[in-house]
Amino acid sequence: MSGGGSHLKDEGSKEQVVIAGAVAGLISRFCIAPLDVLKIRLQLQTDPLPRRKFRRNEHGIAPSGTVYTFKRILHEEGVTAFWKGNVPAELLYISYGAVQFSTYRMTNRLLQSLSLPNSLDTFLSGASAGAAATSLTYPLDLLRTRFAAQGCDRVYMNFRSSVVDIAHTEGFRGFFQGLLPAVGQVVPYMGLFFSIYEVLRPPLASLSLPLGSGDAAAGILSGMLAKSGVFPLDLIRKRLQVQGPMRARYAGGSIPVYSGVWATGQAIVSKEGWRGLYRGLGISLVKSAPASAVTMWTYEHALKLLRFTEAEKL
Q1: Ramachandran bin of 4, using left for φ above 0, alpha for ψ from -120 to 50, beta for the remaining angles
Q2: Distance between CA atoms of residues 187 and 208, nearest Å
Q3: Cβ-based neighbours of 50, under 8 Å, separated by 6 or more
Q4: Angle at Cα 136 formed by Cα 278 and Cα 27, nearest 5°?
Q5: SS3 label, residue 47
Q6: Which of 48, 178, 299, 314 has the smallest set of CB atoms within 10 Å of its CB?
Q7: What is the C-alpha to C-alpha distance for residues 22 and 42, in angstroms, rounded to an integer?
Q8: Closest CA to 278 of 265, 288, 259
Q9: Is residue 78 within 8 Å of 115, Cβ to Cβ?
């Protein structure tokens, strides 16, 4: 852990922060890709959610549940399906990580001149980092979702054809469907995440944990707590991202036409109940733990390696 219990804003040069953030995003994405695909498939299921006891089939499996969805993907599409959308996702995580950590560091240093309370300083820096990273990398996020939503019917053959097709049929705005709930979600999420992380990291850094991963433990707790509060916006974002002329061809083929954040939320509640806004929350929390832990642990150690290498040159 770089610096033991020091804060993110005090560590590394601008170039080192960008490189470490990109490496953290790359490795994190590859590790959690299967959980991400599974979460997206669950979020795009639109059937009503009656009481659980009425949702079991003859094999005792909920036909729209996590286990059923996992087995169906594996049986119909094969194990490689859990890495669908990996190309735009890897580009997303690399660029997102680099923008997120560099913006966090820059904003935090700018806010120091205002003499704000440390908790507010950290929250604003985290929120700014999340908003900037989300906005600048959003087209890649949309492509990741659409590839992950593809079943046996391949809507897009490859990354290049998806870009050309969306530009031709939906125009420039097509790449930003669902941007509003994305920013609305990520600002409080990233603000909460970094605030909680900065609080938990120093005490956890002194504990004797596996691989010395106090950073990872702080990342796990921060990610899970922050994710739970903003999950409905994440689900609405996914529903909006698959709108367009190809909507009926995605896995399940039953995604309704949605327009606008509030109207989408109302439509989901009306048809699926309040629980519909939390489809995939369980797998999302399972995903957020390793994703946050791997991201922060890799970032800290990549930054430490870069600083050590730089020191060796002097």
Answers
A1: left
A2: 33
A3: none
A4: 70
A5: coil
A6: 314
A7: 28
A8: 265
A9: no
Task: Identify residue 5 by its one-letter amino acid code.
Answer: G
Q: What is the pTM of this model?
A: 0.77
Q: Which amino acid is at 191?
A: G
User: What's the rounded Cα separation, in Å, for the pair 286 and 299?
Assistant: 20
User: Each residue of 164-176: pLDDT tens digit?
Assistant: 999 999 999 999 9
Decide: 177 and 138 in contact? Cβ < 8 Å: no
Q: How far apart are CA 33 and CA 177, in angstroms?
A: 22
Contact residues for 287 (Cβ-Cβ < 8 A; gap 6+): 32, 35, 36, 39
Categorize the per-residue pLDDT at 258 as very low, low, confident or very high, splitting at 50, 70 and 90. Answer: very high
Q: Are 126 and 191 in contact (CB under 8 A)?
A: yes
> Which of 23-32, 179-188, 253-262 comes out lowest in average pLDDT?
23-32
Task: Return the axis-axis angle of helices 261-272 and 179-205, rounded to nearest 10°.
Answer: 80
